[in-house]
Amino acid sequence: MIDVNKEQLSPMMQKYMETKEQYKDCILFYRLGDFYEMFFDDAILASKELELTLTGKNCGLVERAPMCGVPFHACEVYLNKLVANGHKVAICEQVEDAKNAKGLVKREVIRIATPGTNIDMASLEEGKNNYIMSVVYIADSFGIAIADITTGRFLVTEVTSVPKLLDEIYKFSPSEIICNESFLFSGVDTEELKYKLNVTVYSLESWYFESEQCEDIIKSHFKVNAINGLGLDDIDFGRIAVGSLLKYLYETQKNSLTNLNTITPYNISNYMIIDSSTRRNLELTETMRDKNKRGSLLWVLDKCKTAMGSRMLRSYIEQPLIKKSEINERLDAVESLKKSAITREELREYLNPIYDIERLMGKISYKSANPRDLIAFANSLEMLPAIKQQLSDFKKGILANLYDELDPLEDIYSLINKSINEEAPITIKEGGIIKSGYNANIDSLRNAKIEGKTWLAELEAEDKERTGIKNLRIKYNKVFGYYFEVTNSYKDLVPADYIRKQTLSNAERYTTDKLKELEDTILNAEDKLFALEYDMFCDIRDSIADNVLRIQKTARVIACLDALLSLANVAEINHYVRPKINEKGVIEIKGGRHPVIEKMIQDGMFIKNDTFLDNNKNRISIITGPNMAGKSTYMRQTSLIVLMAQLGSFVPADSADIGVCDRIFTRVGASDDLASGQSTFMVEMAEVANILRNATENSLLILDEIGRGTSTFDGLSIAWAVVEYISNTKLLGAKTLFATHYHELTELEGKLPCVNNYCIAVKEQGEDVVFLRKIVKGGADKSYGIAVAKLAGVPDTVTKRAEEIVSQLLENDISVKIQSIAAESYDNNGKKSKVRRLDEVDMNQMSLFDTITDDDILDEIKNLDVNALTPIEALNTLYSLQSKLNNRW
To answer: How far is CA 617 from the centre of its chain?
Structure first.
């Protein structure tokens, strides 16, 4: 931190420091001429992050002030980089013309750019909203407000636990979170959020969250007298989140926020809940490994023609529906579009030229739209009448509603078309914006600029004839402007209306009222023209902004239509079928396919599989089979088909009857979380705990290799207990696909009334193995891990040694030791009639590479304290010693 004595600073630097004092938490872009300059600590920081040369400026101190700068016309590039790195940037602009300034030019901060309030379309991902979220933590509850200031989307809800809050954060993936100080002590790991989501978290002062002030600003912003008119009367903490967010946005954007004109309260119970692990494991919007869209479900389904449609479709995927009627309404619309191939393609053709109306409207509202933006806006609006005409073919359901709600906005298109030049420049203060014929004054000034020389020549010829001065000339210089020059030989012919301006040795220079008028017109025409065009452009832009509600409503219609068209188009191309939706808890899929993998392999090579789950005897499927045979693919495929059905999409199957699920949980794969000090097994157990605590009987659970992160016996015990817990309808009773290499779990079929065994079919050809990728009834008795190792190229010496070891291990198969457990009887609720524990038998695992000698066993016997052993410990010890003797090699 540089210590600055403000009294010694120059007047300009004193003004800079006054502004900087008001925006201590921001990097200050200070406009000086054609540059935004940064000084002192801001300059040092910005020069490093933007790779700028750090220079110095005389500022009245002994040492020069550190300084760096960026050109004002290219500032967005540098600003976006700083914002992307989590900084706030205050833009201090000249707010008066330097020509008219008395003393220092007046400057004010016109906007503060933050990660969640960036409005530069070039730096934002087209198909993804840029959300800012306000979270207030009060009395063990969380109020949540979410806004995208570029599109006008504004949502509010409340949740009562940290896991539910995290579900919302991961769902919306905001760029910025503002919160009260209590939130930092709520149990949410903000560092983890920053690491995993690249989100910036700012804690604000308590006055932002004062209840009365929040209500006042809400009523003022939405121009209502009472909160209940907005649907916010039942969400007290949500109101505080909304109010605090509005305060923050007013403070940073310094405008009226007119595009945030509606707020939508929502209840998380109205949508399928998908936690962060499931979003990651199912690769809904990005792949786990590369974080790319390609390879995700969104990549398959998003064939939208507009950015608005892509964002809408993403929201469908992130928030699947759980009400049967709403799901079927969306499916009806998709089916209608799928069947109407010609209309569908014509609609997609009309959507193709449409720009991002939502974000263009945001720029218009924030007065940052340039002439090119308005031309793009008009080109988009030009398509609306044709789209409305095509929608008239649909007489019911969502599509009929879209027809009714679509405003063609023909008046706004007409305004732009009549006024804005198609070849207008990007800048708004250099003229060339307004079409000829739109405004008489602009036409006159433009003619003056273009035709000035012609007017001067005509006046010169006219006065030559009037005065008889044959060598009369109109000339110009910067000191005297335009003037008539008359040589001394013709001075006697100079008329009385000529006014002397200058006397030369051989001539006189004169002006007239008419020449003065022409001079004023010509010399000031360009400045006046540019100023008048700028004012006229601002008036047109403001006139469009006054229609923000109409335009946003139409933009939402186009977004919804585009998303539905994309789903219909994908269904047609990929041969998807319409799923039936039931509320009986039955999931029956015939010939199901993985929507992503089938697109990434050769045509026809993907093997179809069936799935049947219900709330009775087919509640849990234990799936065994070789590594790499397709167990994980099959389970992900089932969950994706369920999710696709509930978002209103057709599904990749021969037929599907989908019971509505309130949540999908997945526990797939293994990964260390070293950043938070958690091992693979700890991460796995934390996810299992979350599933068992939050799942319901209407949830779908996908559990892959539970327990593999620890020892064999511990892992088997945990997996066994988890299946028992899930099967018990009094404890959970959820539909479950459970993949495992613990073949001992297949013993549960017939013992627990809801468990069924399935396996992946394998064909052995000598020492080679062919994975058939087909799910069949029954359990597998081998995992073929060594065969997979051979396929992966593991050296023969290792695989041969592995075969020797496995043959010895099979002689001591653990399944023999658990027969007594598997033989226990269960009642109809899956409750054991007799409780026995696995640790009644010593399950110490033998070392594969240590040789046990007689001396080792004798030493162990000598060191036993026989008097201290209980009878059961004595039996276990004897069993252990006997095992060691039998297994020496």
So the answer is: 41
pLDDT given at position 787: 78
> Rounded CA gap, 755 and 10, in Å?
82
* Residue 251 burial (CB count, 10 A): 11
Per-residue HEC secondary structure of 384-429 comes to HHHHHHHHCCCCCHHHHHHHHHCCCCHHHHHHHHHHECCCCCCCCC
The answer to whether residues 445 and 534 touch, using CB atoms and an 8 Å cutoff, is no
Please determine, for residue 823, whether its predicted confidence score (pLDDT) is greater than 50: no
Helix (H) or strand (E) holding 304: none
Question: What pLDDT is attached to residue 545?
Answer: 95
In this prediction, residue 872 carries a pLDDT of: 65
Neighbours of 302 (CB within 10 A): 22
With a CB cutoff of 8 Å and minimum separation 6, the contacts of 525 are 445, 446, 448, 449, 452
For residue 313, what are the CA distances in angstroms to 248, 305, 306, 662?
29, 11, 11, 20
Render 81-119 in DSSP notation, one character per residue: HHHHTT--EEEEEE-S-TTT-SSSPPEEEEEEE-TTS--
> Which residue type sits at 65?
A
pLDDT given for residue 304 in this prediction: 97
Q: Compute the radius of gyration of the chain from its Cα atoms.
A: 38
Q: Is the Cβ–Cβ distance between 442 and 428 less than 8 Å?
A: no
Q: Distance (Å, rounded) from C-alpha 445 to C-alpha 484? A: 23
Q: How many CB atoms neighbour CB 618 within 10 A?
A: 17
Of 888, 861, 886, 885, the closest CA to residue 874 belongs to 861
Q: How far is CA 154 from CA 132, 148, 185, 223, in A?
A: 10, 7, 26, 16
Task: List residues bridging with 656 in a β-sheet.
Answer: 589
Please state, in angstroms and rounded to a whole number, the distance separating the CA atoms of residues 531 and 537: 10
Q: What is the mean pLDDT of residues 464-479?
A: 90
pLDDT digits (tens, 9 = 90+) for 362-420: 999 999 899 999 999 999 999 999 999 999 999 999 999 999 999 999 999 999 999 99
pLDDT of residue 838: 34
Report the 3 state secondary structure along 269-283. Answer: HHECECCHHHHHHHC
Say if CB 817 and CB 854 are below 8 A apart. no
Pairing of strands 107-113, 89-94: antiparallel
Instruction: Convert the pLDDT of each residue in 213-269 to its tens digit.
Output: 999 999 999 999 888 778 888 899 999 999 999 999 999 999 999 999 999 999 999
Distance (Å, whole) CA 324 – CA 331: 10
pTM given for the model: 0.82
How far are the Cα atoms of 125, 126, 154 from residue 130, in angstroms, in the given order?
Answer: 8, 10, 12
> Residues near 258 by Cβ (< 8 Å), separated by ≥ 6?
365, 545, 548
Dihedral of CA atoms 118, 121, 125, 130 in degrees, nearest 10, equals: 30
Write the pLDDT tens digit of every residue in 784-800: 778 778 877 889 899 88
550-579 burial, b at 16+ Cβ within 10 Å, e below that, comes to ebbebbbbbbbbbbbbbbbbbbeebebebb
Report the DSSP pairing between strands 587-592 and 89-94.
Answer: unpaired
Helix (H, G, I), strand (E, B) or coil at 661: coil
Confidence of residue 852 (pLDDT cuts 50, 70, 90): low
Q: How confident is the prediction for the chain on average, in pLDDT?
A: 87
